[in-house]
Every structure is written in structure tokens, then in C-alpha cells.
């Protein structure tokens, strides 16, 4: 399997398919690069080079105890892009991966980056604070950690069966295959990485990172996102970006890259080619 070793000795798995302008995909919590199947197959068939890695502690990357914070996530992404010498790349991040992309660009600069897209992404800040009154109470995220610690396998059934794909909405048609694939990806990763990752994605403030970014950024979000609520995420990120465009999808769930892949892929392609 193609892997790199980071400066702090962590083995990171990645996929690298095709040739042409690179599109680099950063996945959400607690999944893996497999969550981008619908996008990677689409874009490699449209003449792009597609790259995706498993975040440390997730998927096929090493299940280390430490480094499950956004600084390490960004540095690991930088290590992959440097190893593959990716230039003029488009970075696409879903959910936690959106935070990873934002922090990577702000922390490591734009010399290798052409554009970025944030899908159902966690920035600017998920947790409720005095400065972010519209955020979710910290007790929500404490509850996620408690469920993970008590019965991770059951927790990883409940999330995709319910809010992640909007399968708990009236008239929804749940796909057992999609639910099982979410569970499979989650259970491949390490409990410690996933437990710590809840703090990383919920309590990291990306406000200053967003302000530093000058490349074009497409902010894509469904207004029925039950994981990263729309009002406190996408519109705020788009305003903080120097060159941000907000695209709102009526009724789309958090997991829209999977359930609404046809629409998302078409819009991403138009943005990349635009």
C-alpha cells in the first residue's frame, strides 16, 4: 500500500490515481479516503489526478495515540502534498476535512494551491462560546465522546442510520449499503483518534485561518445538515474568506457527497474549470 512516514514517525496511507491537475480530498470524521469514492471515480474519468489520504488514526493509517489535533492534520496533509510534489492543486474537504484544508492552506501557504472547496465543513467554529453564541453546546460533543467510549460499534450504526445522511427525515429512503459502508470505515480506524478527533473538529476556531486564504474557495452546504448546522458554518465561512462563494443546497444532508453525488460532482467540476 502507498504510504508516507511523517516527521513524527506516523505512517499515512494515500491513494493517487490518474494524471492532470491534482484534486486532493480530505475526508470527514471518523471515516477514510474511501468516503470519496463517488468523487474520485468521477474526477479521474474527467482527466484529473485524484489524491486522498486516510487521516492519522483513521482507515489504513497508523493508529497512534497522539497528534489528533488540527495542527497535525494539516502537517500530515502537507507531507502528502510535498511527497507527491503536487502543484496547482484543488483541495476539497468534507466536514472535519474542511477544517483540515483551511488550516493546511493558512499554515503552509498557497504556493501549491489553486482553489479549495469546503463541503458541509466545520469552520469557522462548531462549539458554542461567548464569541460564537450560535454554536452547539459543549455538552453535545461530550455526549458524542461518551457514546463512542461506551459502544463505538453501536454509535457508528446510529450516526449514519439517522442524522448523517438525513435518513431520519420523513420520506427518506435509507440505503443499508451506505450505512454499512460508513460503519465499516469508522471501525477500521482507532478509537483514540476518533475520541480525540471530536475535540479537534468541534473546538478548533478556524476564523483567523479563513481570513488568511486568498485563493478562490467554494463553500457548499446543505440547509438540512444535522451534523454541522448550516447557519453557524457555511455563511459565516464565506463571509470571512477573501474570495469565497457560498452555494446552499435546499434539503441536502451532511453526507451529501455520497447521497447527492451527481449534483455535488457537477458543481465541483464547474467550479474547478471556472
TrEMBL record:
<keyword id="KW-0378">Hydrolase</keyword>
<feature type="domain" description="AB hydrolase-1">
    <location>
        <begin position="22"/>
        <end position="254"/>
    </location>
</feature>
<dbReference type="GO" id="GO:0016787">
    <property type="term" value="F:hydrolase activity"/>
</dbReference>
<dbReference type="InterPro" id="IPR000073">
    <property type="entry name" value="AB_hydrolase_1"/>
</dbReference>
<protein>
    <submittedName>
        <fullName>Alpha/beta hydrolase</fullName>
    </submittedName>
</protein>
<dbReference type="InterPro" id="IPR029058">
    <property type="entry name" value="AB_hydrolase_fold"/>
</dbReference>
<dbReference type="Pfam" id="PF00561">
    <property type="entry name" value="Abhydrolase_1"/>
</dbReference>
<dbReference type="InterPro" id="IPR050471">
    <property type="entry name" value="AB_hydrolase"/>
</dbReference>
